[in-house]
């Protein structure tokens, strides 16, 4: 069997029957301990429900299973050989809301290295199975129940053996929730393994096995019928309350990271850094985004031209009446006496041509205020005085 790429032990120690086996899982976020020694076994062809209040560590646990985060300590083992055999549906709708349902299917299909025919075939099958909305519609315009069905279809698109769902029925009305569970039962009957999180207690009765969590700890795990019979009650709420009281009466020992010895072991084959199918998926997604947002596309195409025009207007013209004090040390005489001969050849190879004279003659044709024959220090004084004079003239004009 294979470890899921977080923290591992030797393969001989792994149970043979569970699809997923978690041993002594610990995870902390700062001073908050999200998982405190969780043990879990999920068997093939069953629906396993992680039941507990918000913040008890359910999402942290499923994120560790799918490899979105690493445990601080503990082990996660699975009989799967590749992460692609897992389908994951997060609590938030992770769909591109401005792409159509068909375009979302194609994008995620190419990410899983499916060809176009396989994507089309699987999409049609899932549309019939989950009663998906028309493929031409965008998730932005769908109801919450329709969005969740599309999200589930995306998770099932590559036909995974294990399906992990994080709070899949949040916000669904009772009818949609029942239909959702009916679909999960059909998939379990087909041999798929389903792991889901929920905080709806009575809803969890439809699962084959339940794991009750509180404060990052697994209180118990068993079938709903066995839990009800063990605690002699007809309601899972009573079972959960009884276990919470038992937990409060126990003295727990906080185990730090330093007290737990572990080593990180990755047994899944690392994916290629450059994947042509993923590059294709990203290019296709960007094309769909541009196609569906013509205003954004036109703006993106026109922006460079607009910026160039603005730069041309603001910076690409000669300044008017800019004072220039000329200090020419190349030509000993007055600048006015510069030879007025011009050539198209290289002036550096012609000793009779004065580069400064050619440059100054060019400046005379512009809108500069030029004063010649200055020494360097006098030129600085002239520029400062001229600037002050221009400022006084502008101020007096404004006052009038």
UniProtKB/TrEMBL annotation:
TM ranges: 294-315
Q: Which SUPFAM superfamilies match?
A: P-loop containing nucleoside triphosphate hydrolases
Q: Which residues form the ABC transporter domain?
A: 20-240
Keyword annotations for this protein, in alphabetical order, are: ATP-binding, Membrane, Nucleotide-binding, Transmembrane, Transmembrane helix
Which CDD domains does the UniProt entry name for this protein?
A: ABC_DR_subfamily_A
Q: Which Gene3D superfamilies match?
A: P-loop containing nucleotide triphosphate hydrolases
The record's annotation in Pfam families points to:
ABC_tran
One Gene Ontology molecular-function label? ATP binding
Please give the name of this protein.
ABC transporter domain-containing protein
Origin organism is Bemisia tabaci (Sweetpotato whitefly)
Instruction: Please spell out the taxonomic lineage of the organism that makes this protein.
Output: Eukaryota, Metazoa, Ecdysozoa, Arthropoda, Hexapoda
């Amino acid at each position: 069997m294979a470890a899921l790429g977080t923290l591992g032990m030797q393969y001989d120690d792994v149970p043979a029957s569970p699809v997923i086996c978690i041993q002594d899982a610990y995870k902390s976020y700062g001073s908050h301990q999200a998982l405190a020694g969780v043990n879990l076994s999920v068997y093939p062809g069953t629906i396993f429900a992680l039941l507990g209040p918000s913040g008890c560590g359910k999402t942290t646990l499923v994120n560790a299973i799918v490899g979105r985060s690493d445990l601080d300590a503990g082990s996660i083992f699975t009989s799967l050989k590749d992460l692609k055999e897992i389908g994951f549906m997060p609590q938030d709708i992770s769909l591109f809301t401005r792409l159509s349902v068909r375009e979302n299917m194609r994008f995620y299909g190419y990410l899983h290295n499916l060809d176009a025919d396989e994507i089309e075939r699987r999409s049609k099958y899932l549309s019939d199975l989950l009663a998906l909305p028309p493929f031409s519609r965008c998730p932005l315009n769908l109801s919450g129940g329709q969005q969740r069905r599309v999200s589930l279809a995306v998770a099932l698109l590559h036909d995974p053996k294990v399906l992990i769902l994080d709070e899949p029925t949040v916000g669904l009305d009772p009818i949609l929730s029942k239909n959702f569970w009916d679909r999960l039962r059909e998939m379990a009957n087909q041999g798929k393994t389903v792991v889901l999180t929920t905080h709806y207690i009575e809803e969890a009765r439809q699962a084959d096995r339940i794991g009750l969590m509180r404060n990052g700890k697994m209180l118990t795990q068993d079938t709903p019928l066995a839990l009800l019979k063990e605690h002699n009650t007809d309601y899972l709420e009573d079972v959960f309350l009884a276990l919470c009281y038992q937990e409060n009466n126990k003295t727990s020992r906080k185990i730090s990271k330093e007290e737990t010895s572990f080593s990180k072991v990755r047994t899944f084959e690392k994916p290629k850094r450059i994947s042509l199918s993923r590059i294709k998926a990203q290019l296709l997604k960007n094309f769909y985004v541009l196609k569906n947002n013509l205003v954004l596309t036109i703006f993106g195409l026109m922006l460079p031209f607009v910026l160039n025009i603005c730069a041309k207007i603001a910076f690409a013209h000669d300044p008017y009446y800019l004072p220039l004090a000329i200090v020419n040390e190349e030509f000993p005489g007055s600048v006015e006496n510069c030879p007025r001969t011009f050539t198209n050849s290289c002036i550096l190879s012609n000793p009779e041509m004065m580069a400064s004279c050619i440059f100054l003659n060019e400046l005379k044709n512009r809108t500069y205020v030029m004063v010649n024959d200055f020494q360097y220090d006098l030129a600085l004084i002239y520029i400062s005085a001229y600037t002050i004079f221009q400022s006084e003239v502008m101020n007096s004009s404004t006052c009038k």
